[in-house]
Amino acid sequence: MQAFTLRSYPCKLSLAALTCFWGLVEGAILALSVERRNSNADWSIHLDIRLLAAFYGGILSGVAYYIMGMVNKEKGPVFFSAFNPLGTVIILILGSLVLDEHMYLGSLIGAIVIVVGLYLVLWGKTKDEPPSQFINNSESTKR
Questions:
Q1: How many structural domains are present in the chain?
Q2: Is residue 84 classed as helix, strand or coil in its secondary structure?
Q3: DSSP-assigned letter for residue 37
Q4: Which of 4, 42, 82, 95 could serve as a FRET partner for 67 with CA atoms 20 to 30 Å apart?
Q5: pLDDT of residue 135
Q6: 3-state DSSP call for residue 5?
């Protein structure tokens, strides 16, 4: 679906911005519906580290969507999916180093199972399709 949207919508950066905007709208609706009866909820905006973190997260999400769209268009979804488990590994390492989170054995085993499972699916996908089909798909997306 995303590859079709990228072909039909040529402004990739604004597509990433629209995706993030609608994620913001959905998140706001969810927060309002869940927290509407909570009298302790603080809905005011303060100029502090939390606002900076939210702004940084929004910018980072937009950049990530843009990069995902470009990689998906240039190399295809199989190539993009092959590097997806790196995010899990990076989050596990940075969470333990930067945020001083405890790394439990169950989390480590779960991350390993997810990464191995995804690579097995990708390996099976490459065995399923002949290599000539990958060449034809990459040539057709460049036009």
A1: 2
A2: coil
A3: T
A4: 95
A5: 53
A6: helix
CA 46 to CA 111: how far, in whole Å? 36
pLDDT tens by residue, 99-114: 888 888 887 888 788 8
Q: Which two tokens stand for residue 112?
A: 């390993």
Q: Which of 134, 8, 13, 132 is nearest to 74 (CA)?
A: 134
What does the alpha-carbon distance between residue 52 and residue 119 come to, in Å, rounded to a whole number? 36
Same domain, 4 and 57: yes
Cβ atoms of 73 and 106 closer than 8 Å: no
Q: Would you say residue 140 has pLDDT above 60?
A: no
List, for residues 60-89, the tens digit of each pLDDT value.
777 777 777 787 777 777 667 766 676 777
> Based on the domain organization, do 80 and 140 belong to the same domain?
yes
> Shortest CA distance to 84 belongs to which of 48, 40, 119, 131?
119
Please state whether the predicted TM-score (pTM) of the whole model is above 0.90: no
Question: Token pair for residue 24?
Answer: 């913001």
